[in-house]
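Budget justification aside, the reviewers requested a transparent look at the raw inputs and outputs of the sequence design task funded under Objective 1. We therefore reproduce one unedited record. The lines immediately below are the C-alpha cells for a 100-residue chain.
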C-alpha cells in the first residue's frame, strides 16, 4: 500500500486557511473564486495558491465558466478520507463491513 496519496491530502488539510476554505465550500456549495476572496478575506493570489493545493490533493473540484473559476468540495474524496477503509489501516482489530 502506498501512503503517498494520503500524505498529499493530509498535508493539504494541515493548514488553517485551507480548512476554512473547505468549510466555506461545504456551507455554500459551488462558489466563484471572486466570492471566495471576500469570504476568506484573502487576496486572490494567495487564495489561488491554497486552492491549487486543495485541487491537486483532489479535495475540491474546479469548473471554469467564461473567465471565472468555480470551486466545490469533492464530497467523494472527503468521504473517502473519513471512510472505513482508512480506519481499517490504523485500527486493524476493528472488523466492519467496509474494511479491506
Amino acid at each position: 500500500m502506498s501512503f503517498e496519496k494520503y500524505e498529499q491530502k493530509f498535508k493539504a488539510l494541515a493548514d488553517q486557511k485551507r480548512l476554512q476554505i473547505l468549510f466555506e465550500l461545504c456551507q455554500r456549495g459551488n462558489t466563484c473564486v471572486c466570492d471566495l476572496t471576500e469570504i476568506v478575506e484573502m487576496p486572490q493570489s494567495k487564495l489561488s495558491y491554497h486552492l491549487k493545493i486543495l485541487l491537486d490533493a483532489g479535495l475540491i473540484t474546479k469548473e471554469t465558466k467564461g473567465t471565472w473559476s468555480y470551486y466545490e468540495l469533492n464530497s467523494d474524496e472527503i468521504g473517502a478520507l473519513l471512510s472505513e477503509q482508512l480506519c481499517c489501516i490504523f485500527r486493524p482489530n476493528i472488523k466492519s463491513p467496509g474494511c479491506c
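The mean pLDDT is 86. The chain has one domain: 4-90. Computational costs for records of this kind are itemized in the attached budget.
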